[in-house]
Amino acid sequence: MKTDDFDYFLPPTSIAQEPLAQRDGARLLEHDLGRNQTRHRRVRELTEVLRAGDLLVVNDTRVRPVRLFGRRQSGGKVEFLLTTAVADHKPRPGVSRWLARVHPARKLRPGERIELDGGAHALAVERPVQDDGKPGPHWMIELVAAGATQVEELLLEIGRMPLPPYIQREPGSSDAEDRKRYQTVFADKPGAIAAPTAGLHFTGELLQRLEAMGVERAAVTLHVGEGTFQPVAVQDLEQHPMHSESYDLPPQTVAAVEACRRRGGRVVAVGTTSVRVLESCVDANGTLRPGSGATRLFLRPGSKFKVVDALLTNFHLPRSTLLMLVSAFAGFERTMELYRIAVEEGYRFYSYGDAMCLHGREGSPL
Asked: How far, CA to CA in Å, does 60 sit from each of 191, 195, 227, 318?
């Protein structure tokens, strides 16, 4: 298949700019793959879709507020998006090294100091070059806090949430609401620069209702990276350099999956990130193994799913690896038809948008 196959028309008005007042009030396009039946619901109606014995697998990553604004000595504005923490061979209190997207990147010079809020500053170290000798997309910077403030404390104090580029905010506006809503209710382990958006729909009340009816829950961790928003740039999918994301699959989650299998329940992945962790940790014998590391797993039409029986996911960007993953799970033609229906029915798309639940795959529990 070619990347162009995964393009589709989406009116700009379909891109959700704000979260709904109630998380579980989002619309839910439920599709039974085995019966080829579609229902239009609300996320709170997952109690009608899931059943006792099912296992929800959520991603407990926590989004860091890693978008920083500063000023050069000339007065020019600089924006940083911290993407990856870099191990410093000489760790110092209140100092951390990062790879960062910088705007404007061309004007920055090695050794230049940029003043940030709260008495902190950033120091431009170098701009690593690519294999072709051209400047890479990132700068290495040192983030220096006032005193010995820990980096997580500093980011909470001066950082802003790294909302994806299709969500527009007025410059200087407060991000207090986004700090609350661009975070799942089970977020625990800091490290992501984007939210696992399918998890944004859950409330404590909905989780309690599901638990009361016998739906169990387990967690994985995948720290969502910047590659999640990048469209595939090549036509031949085999040539796409899949981005890497760090993950952790704990032994207790493996045990929960095994118990779910024994009782005949379904493993329901909340989001494509949970899928990537689970399917990355299957050994050559088909056995799910706990572990941690980095995954470059690229699931696309033709890929086999060995763990996940059902998928709860948002609606994804055209030409994205996330849309390709959903197409691998549900089938290409089926997925593109469901997206057409979602556009026609006025569903809200992307991070703050509505959701889709896919179940009833051949070979999975009914």
From this structure: 10, 10, 19, 26
CA–CA distance, 90 with 96 (Å, rounded to integer): 10
CATH of residue 303: 3.40.1780.10
Q: Alpha-carbon distance 160 to 81, whole Å?
A: 10
**Residue listed under structure tokens 């989002």:** 26
Residue pair 297/242 in contact (Cβ under 8 Å)? The answer is yes
Residue 150: predicted pLDDT: 83
Q: What is the pLDDT of residues 239-266, one digit of tens each?
A: 888 889 999 999 999 999 999 999 999 9
Least Cα distance to 23 among 152, 206, 155, 158 occurs for 206
What digits encode the pLDDT tens for the residues 179-217? 999 999 999 999 999 999 999 999 999 999 999 999 999
User: pTM for the whole thing?
Assistant: 0.94
Residue-range definition of the domain harbouring residue 110 = 67-159
Position with higher pLDDT, 164 vs 226: 164
Query: Of 104, 129, 159, which closes a domain?
Result: 159
Confirm if 357 and 31 have CB atoms less than 8 A apart: yes
- 366 inside domain: no
327 and 269 in a common domain = yes
Domain-located, residue 204: yes
